[in-house]
């Protein structure tokens, strides 16, 4: 095997391997993006449906996710959580998570009552009083995404407020021991007892997959371009007899 061919064998094999792999990953991300786009369209439709009434009977998360919901009951100030590191217009603060006992039973649902600014010190927690009388809450049902690698969470404080770096709904339900609806209600701005509630449009991340697909396709294109550059350079460096073929 000629020396020039041996030198070009490794780049050729790498291109033959990497281009199909990068292309396949790009098309897979496009497919995932299309699935998420369809899911986003379904969630957008759910957001304009009439509000579903939450009762004491526990529902499945998929039945409630992104639907508008409402419930009658009372806020309970025990086992409240301040969800830390929530940024609003460039200011650090918390989201106030308060349990709400649904009328007609002992089932609770966790309500995100909105954003409050952090104090000058982490020891100075903001006041988060809740209405004591029965109220009707309305909002959008969401299931918090799992977050990993953020350290251990403090045990819940029954009589006070616990600060959590991320919201772990299954752990919350396990620690309080109540029957819990498997969602969090993003409280409407018109509902009583809340704080700053400028909720962003709920997004399942379809655009992220399109971005990943673009990156994979660009990597495949880069491999092709690099391979062609190496090929041209190899042809230029080859002896004239080799470039023109056998004579």
Overview in brief:
The chain has helices spanning 3-46, 61-64, 169-176, 206-237, 240-244, and strands spanning 52-53, 68-75, 80-88, 91-102, 108-117, 135-142, 161-164, 180-187. By secondary structure, it is α/β, with parallel strands linked by helices.
> Helical amount among residues, as a percent range?
25-40%
| Measured distance between first and last alpha carbons | 18 Å
Structural class, judged by helices and strands? Answer: alpha/beta
Principal-axes shape call: elongated
Sequence of secondary-structure elements: HEHEEEEEEHEHH
Report the sheet-strand fraction.
15-25%
| Biggest sheet character | 5 strands, mixed, barrel
Q: Provide the low-confidence segments as ranges.
A: none
Tally the structural domains. 2
Rg over C-alpha atoms, rounded to the nearest angstrom: 28 Å
DSSP summary, beta strand count: 8
Please give the count of helices.
5
Structure description:
This protein is of the alpha/beta class. The chain has 2 domains: 3-42 and 206-242; 50-187, no CATH class. It is built from 5 helices and 8 strands, in the order αβαββββββαβαα. The protein has a 5-stranded mixed barrel with strand order 2-4-5-8-6. β1 (52-53), α2 (61-64) and β2 (68-75) form a beta-alpha-beta unit. α1 packs antiparallel against α4 (206-237). The protein is elongated, with a radius of gyration of 28 Å. The protein starts with a helix and ends with a helix.
């Amino acid at each position: 095997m000629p020396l020039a061919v041996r030198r070009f064998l490794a780049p050729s094999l790498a291109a033959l391997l990497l281009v199909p792999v990068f292309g396949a990953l790009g098309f897979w991300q496009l497919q995932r993006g299309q699935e998420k786009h369809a899911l986003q369209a379904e969630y957008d439709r759910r957001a304009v449906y009439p509000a579903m009434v939450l009762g004491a009977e526990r529902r499945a998360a998929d039945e409630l996710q992104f639907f508008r919901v409402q419930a009658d009951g009372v806020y309970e100030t025990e086992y409240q959580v301040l969800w830390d590191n929530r940024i609003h217009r460039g200011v650090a603060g918390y989201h106030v998570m308060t349990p709400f006992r649904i009328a007609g039973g002992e089932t609770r649902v966790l309500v995100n009552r909105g954003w409050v600014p952090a104090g000058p010190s982490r020891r100075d927690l903001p006041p988060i009083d809740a209405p004591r009388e029965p109220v009707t809450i309305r909002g959008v049902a969401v299931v918090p995404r799992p977050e990993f690698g953020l350290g251990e969470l403090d045990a819940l404080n029954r009589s006070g407020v616990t600060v959590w770096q991320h919201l772990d709904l299954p752990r919350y339900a396990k620690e309080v021991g109540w029957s819990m609806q498997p969602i969090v209600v993003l409280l409407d701005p018109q509902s009583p007892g809340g704080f700053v509630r400028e909720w962003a449009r709920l997004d399942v991340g379809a655009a992220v997959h399109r971005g990943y697909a673009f990156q994979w396709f660009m990597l495949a294109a880069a491999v092709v371009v690099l391979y062609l550059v190496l090929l041209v350079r190899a042809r230029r460096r080859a002896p004239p007899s080799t470039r023109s073929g056998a004579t």
